[in-house]
From TrEMBL:
Domain NADPH-dependent FMN reductase-like positions: 11-154
Organism in which the protein naturally occurs: Cellulomonas cellasea DSM 20118
Pfam annotation, one family: FMN_red
Protein name per its UniProtKB record: Flavodoxin
GO molecular function, one term: oxidoreductase activity
UniProt cross-references to InterPro entries, sorted A to Z: Flavoprotein-like_sf (IPR029039), FMN_Rdtase-like_dom (IPR005025)
């Protein structure tokens, strides 16, 4: 039985492909959101490349900057999921820009001295056609933890195809059992930790 929804999530998709074209990263990100839904989580998916996110490390880079509205959704959610493709062994440039903008949170705190990101839980979804999922998730985990997010156990799900071939995740006839299993575990652990942190916040800094 699915718990009554009491948690929210935002999935930031770092595909380089604008909507409405299909995206493997968005597909896996939506699968994570669906899996979270089985644990009382509702949420939204944002394809970052569809928005004019200015370069910089401030929370608002001025006229036309789409980040402030996205930031508001991130800070209003219990869970942040970053879904990224692998390019040249790295998270996408769009994903890295989101991380650079999150750097501004190091200068923001509540009335008890805690970062506004404290108490929010982060997870990662990675797709690619070459190896690199562990390296990519390691980069994202470190950056997310640096700016105040909490990373639960088994907080990454991924799919990488064989080297030097052209199959995308979205081209598969069905979700591989291994990926589906890691997505389910990610969802269970992420929702569990988010609920615990809501009930028992971090102490004042």
């Amino acid at each position: 039985m699915t718990p009554t929804p009491d948690l929210t999530a935002v999935v930031l998709v770092g595909t380089l492909t604008p909507s409405p074209a299909p995206s493997s990263s968005e597909l896996l990100g939506r699968q994570v959101l669906d899996a979270l839904g089985e644990h009382g989580v509702t949420g939204t998916v944002i394809r970052l490349v569809d928005h004019d996110i200015k370069p910089g490390v401030e929370k608002d880079m001025g006229e036309g900057d789409a980040w402030p509205a996205i930031r508001e959704q991130v800070l209003g959610a219990d869970i942040l999921v970053l879904a990224t493709p692998i390019w040249m062994g790295q998270p996408s440039s769009v994903t890295k820009r989101a991380l650079e903008r999150l750097d501004a949170e190091l200068g923001e705190s509540d009335d008890q001295g805690r970062l506004l990101t404290y108490g929010r839980v982060a997870a990662v979804a990675v797709v690619g056609n070459e190896d690199g999922a562990h390296h990519t998730s390691a980069e994202l985990f470190q950056a997310l933890n640096d700016v105040g997010f909490t990373v639960p156990a088994a907080a990454v799900t991924y799919w990488v195809g064989a080297a030097m071939q052209g199959t995308d995740y979205q081209d598969l006839d069905e979700t591989p059992e291994e990926t589906a299993g890691t997505t389910a575990t990610l969802a269970a652990n992420t929702a569990h930790l988010a609920r615990l942190l809501r009930q028992s916040p971090y102490p004042p800094s």
